[in-house]
Amino acid sequence: MENTEQLQVAILVSPGMGHLIPNLLLGNRLVTHHNVRATILLVTTPTSPPSESHLLSPDLNIIEIPPVDISGLVNPETKVVTLLAIMMREARPGIRSAISSMNPRPEVLIVDLFGTESFQIADEFHMLKYVYITCTAWFFASTAYCGNVLDKEVEGQYVDQKEPLRIPGCKPVRPEDCVDPMLDRNNQQYREYVRMGIEYTFADGALLNTWEDLEATSLEALRNDEILRSVARVPVYPIGPLKRPVDPAGSQTEIIEWLDMQARESVLYVSFGSGGTLSAEQITELAWGLELSQQRFVWVVRPPTGRGVDGSFFQPGKTGSDGTPDYLPDGFLSRTGSVGYLVQMWAPQVEILSHPAVGGFLSHCGWNSTLESMDSGVPMIAWPLYAEQRLNATLLTEELAVAVRPEALPTKKVVRREEIEKLARRLMQYREGKGMRDRVRQLQCSGERAVSKGGSSYNSMCQFVEDCRRKLKS
Ligand code: UDP
């Protein structure tokens, strides 16, 4: 096909690693498999994330939207959803001018979770507008339903409800599993969330980073449940799993050399995403739990949160005589050095998860991490912290049976060392863990099939491109 016939797409990306990665992957897929010309419009912040240049296809253009000064609009109490909403709102003049100077002008605007206020710009330029939900269909259904229905029907705080919240056709959402912005309806981030849930339904369609076999129930409901359809309205395109490929550079690190020396499926990888941190007390319990479990582990450690209360005397970078960071129990490294490996702050996660020595993942259940774990056939200990991670943890444990989790939410109650020891053993040693490994391998295969030529997600992406062309012609 001639270049001039290529569909021209702009993908608007909100700040943050967890957003950048799936959007780059979407752009790559569109340009490499679907004859689309795609430009990433990246709203930047003064702190740039670590380089992800290996994810960039040479055919994918990137335009950086300069950071906007929002200091007068936020304060230290401002919650993350509000912060991102404000950043994306204030970035609109930059987004508008970037689109207006593009030649050829894009015909389709895809925005991520936080970018729906830029649908207005799409309208100004007569572009089609799509939202890309970088996580689950269940999240999409519950957000649209919350914004359009629950917000009006439910009185009082969601977390005080006695019954799970009913989302037509989908698994109900337990009050304690509600996404962060639903936890306090008086906070501005709830209003932003409700607005997003309403705006999603004004899109021409929603791309979802999930696939048919993974979320059959929610996808069926979004397509065929009369009540949900009357609310969520838009056609859905499950196009996942889009997840990061292994970076050859990341495979040559010391940590991979260490993994090379470990037995197959013997190592528990512990990491809480790009931003997750634990309290000082929880870090101590986790360290003891890992040690007591006698499992091999790789742990991406970060200094504790809540410094004002419990960690103000910890100086990052200070270590004991055996190299143990001072926020871990004394002598931790001397005692665990032969079975454990600590990585400070950031690790090559995809390369670690795909290593044959890794047999389990203690994860905060960010959706990228979840997909990466599934793609490597690695079962999980679900340790949700923020955003929509409690929904993901529930999906993983109750629907898919590929994860174990602590009795109480780690954000509500410190998980004690004995429980962590038990969870690690259940996953890594017991038959239960083997069953989960078998199931996650089935998901690994079904995910691979879905994105391969002729697979459900591949076809769904073709359908999206075709629908765009058809709408543009009509
Ligand atoms: N990640 C990584 N190394 C780390 C921590 C995170 O490479 O030490 C990557 C991880 O592989 C994933 C992303 O950062 O692709 C985190 O996204 P996710 O959705 O899991 O969680 P978030 O950081 O958005 O909470």
UniProtKB/TrEMBL annotation:
- List, in alphabetical order, the Gene Ontology terms for molecular function in this entry: UDP-glycosyltransferase activity
Q: Give the UniProt keywords, A-Z.
A: Glycosyltransferase, Transferase
Q: Which E.C. number(s) belong to this protein?
A: 2.4.1.-
- Please give the superkingdom of this protein's source: Eukaryota
Q: What class of enzyme is it?
A: transferase
**Assigned protein family:** Belongs to the UDP-glycosyltransferase family.
This one is known as Glycosyltransferase
